[in-house]
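Below is the record:
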Amino acid sequence: MIKIQNLHKSYGNTAILKGIDVEIKEGEVLAIIGPSGSGKSTFLRCLNFLEKAEKGIIQIDGEEVNLENFHKSQAVKLRGKTGMVFQNYNLFKNKTALHNVSEPLRLTKKISKKQAELIASDMLAEVGLKGKEFNYPVALSGGQQQRVGIARALALNPYVILFDEPTSSLDPELVEEVLNVMKAVIKQGRTMIVVTHEMEFAKDVADRVIFMADGHIVEEGTPKELFENPQNERTKRFLKNYLSLHNFGGVGI
C-alpha cells in the first residue's frame, strides 16, 4: 500500500503541490495526466526524495516519513522502495548499458559485481536488449536508452516503479517500443505510477487515472469513468483540447 497525505511542495513563493492525498494498492497501475506545470513530475520526484516536500506524510510498503520531522535514514529506506524511470533517460554516458543497470544495483543492494551484472544482463534481455549489453548510450536509440532505464528500475526490484513521462523525449516511431515494454512490466503485476501524455496508453492499461491541475488532484476514477464521463469542467476542457489535437477516441465531453 502507498499512502500520501497532505503533500505540499513549493519553489520559493510558488506553490507546486497544494495538499495531495492519494492511496495506491499493491499491484495497481495509476496513471497521472494533466497539463504541463500541474505538478505531476514534482509529485513523483517527492515520492523518492529527488525533491523534498515541505509538508505531508509519505507511506510506502510500511515505511513512513513525516516530512516535517524525519531522519535521513528514514528517507533512504523509503527511497529504496521506489525505482524511477526518467523522461530524459538519465544514463551515465561513459558506462555501457550493462554497467548503467548493474552499478546502481551494487550501490543500493551491496551485492557483488558478478551477481549485479548477471541480474543486469537478465533485465536487459527482459526489455529486449539482449546483445546490447556492452553498447554505450551514444550507440543506442532513444527507445533503447529508455529501455535501459526501465531495466535499471526493474533490477532494483522496488515496491513501486515511478515513470516520469517516459516517452516524451522520444521520436514518435520509438514511442510504441517503450510502451510495449511497459505493458509487459504491467503484466508482471508490479505497482506502477505513470505520469504520461499518452492518453490511449493510460486508457488501456491503468487501473485508475488521476487528473491533476494547478497543484491539485481535480478528478480521479477508472479510465472509463474519467475518459468517457468526466465530471469536472477542468477535466472536460483538458480532454476536449487533447481530443482536438490528437484525434483521441472514447472521450465523453
